[in-house]
Amino acid sequence: MWSMKWQKTCGAVEKLELPHMNLSGRVSEDIQQLYSLTALNICCNAFSLSLLKSTSSLTHLKNSDVSQNYFVGVFPSSIGRVEGLISINGSNNNFSGFLPEEVVNLTKFESLDFRGSLFEEPIPKSFKNLLNLKYLGLAGNNLTGRIPGGRRARQAFVFQNYYFQVQ
């Protein structure tokens, strides 16, 4: 048996925290009905398969931690429509394909952590437009190329991936 830590105001769930609960299987698409959700933490479980196909209904989401699970496939591109999003921690999963370039649409975005996944190809050049970026963790992937221009992006990136060449 497990318990769920959640916080609600005005009858709407704002925070869903289920870390270290030994949960497994697929994350239900019903989570998209939590329209007031500001924080989602399902780290350190055994969730597998792909992550939600769409996150665009989670318009109030600010922080998402799905780290240390067994998620596979691409990270949902709809994340770029969650305008208030500040941070994503998707580290230590099996995400693959391209990094979600759509995060450049997030004007308040500060932290992206995808260390220890299976992303490939160059780091998108558009990442240089992440003006508020403070942390970019991409070590342990199969990325190639140079760190995109932009002093802030390079500073945030260089501490985690010192072996990449800075433009």
TrEMBL record:
Record has Repeat as a keyword: yes
Residue ranges crossing the lipid bilayer per the database entry: none
Cited InterPro entries: Leu-rich_rpt (IPR001611), LRR_dom_sf (IPR032675)
Gene3D superfamilies to which the protein is assigned, alphabetical: Ribonuclease Inhibitor
Record's keyword terms, sorted: Leucine-rich repeat, Repeat
Protein name according to UniProt: Leucine-rich repeat-containing N-terminal plant-type domain-containing protein
